[in-house]
Amino acid sequence: MKIIDTHCDALLKLQLAKRGTFYGKEPLNFTNSDQLDTNFQRLQAGGVYVQFFAIFLYPDLPDNEKWQHALEQVDLFYTEILGKNPSMNHIKKWEDIDSLKEGEIGAVLTLEGADAFGNDLMKLRQLYRLGVLSIGLTWNNANLCADGAGEPRGGGLTLLGKEVVRLNNEHRIFTDVSHLSVKGSWDVMELADYPIASHSNARALCDHPRNLNDDQAKAMFAKNGMIDVVFCLPFIKEGGKDVGIADLVKHIDHFSNLGGVKHIGIGSDFDGIDAYMKNLNNASEFQNLINELQKHFSESEVEGFAYRNFLEHRPAARR
Description:
Blueprint lengths: L2 E3 L4 H9 L21 H6 L2 E9 L6 H20 L5 E3 L14 E8 L8 H10 L1 E5 L22 H12 L3 E3 L5 H10 L3 E3 L16 H9 L3 E4 L15 H16 L3 E3 L19 H8 L5 H15 L6
Parallel strand pairs: 1-2, 2-4, 3-4, 4-5, 5-6, 6-7, 7-8, 8-9
Helix pairs in contact: 1-3, 7-8
């Protein structure tokens, strides 16, 4: 079955390897490196139809280096992922997904945290031009746009953050709430035309600040947005111990019972997690999740979770 995965951190791993600060001093080969959960061969083996690739910057980077680090990851997206793998097809606008041919995998560029552009909206517009189609305003810390899920203050969007959401709407860009504070997520729900939670689970089942409470989930569904469940073990079961695929399916079931059966997808966080469920260790094993889902849901519902819900709720062209 086809898979659309709305979050992975392969770009960060590629960058750290190239800089010699991760996995020794040898660059990673996106085509087949064992160090990449989402390498090309694994995406092929797992039936991935579209893979989202996040630009992510560590929050302790000096501000004057953040833009350069972001551009390095964009460059790796173009040179290592697209340039060396002809079957990886850059999704520059949402309609491009419909043009994918048999054997091709769509590649979507996203931004996890507005730190890359600071308060410079010219840089944000440049990211749009480079192909970024989804923007999360924060990682877990606070920045100039909003407070993240790990910021004790728990504030919402700043005036700058609200302007970014407005620009996202104008350019048919998702605004991602997965790392936002609760108040920030409510601000997004009020303002965003295209909200998404690219990699979050149900807080009712696992009380972690990165997960969404039931009211947030219901608001996302009412706004025609998507919640894409994440494979990070501490977001599935408190303590992150003895977690299996069946535990992840419970989150999908919970969101479905809240009215979200048409609004649930997959946001693995592969290459951003360091512990795995049995039989779901990398992108080549996505079909093991599908097999488990088929025990609990209809074939139509499983197809929805795997890829069809996303296709039906991606930002539509304005007429």
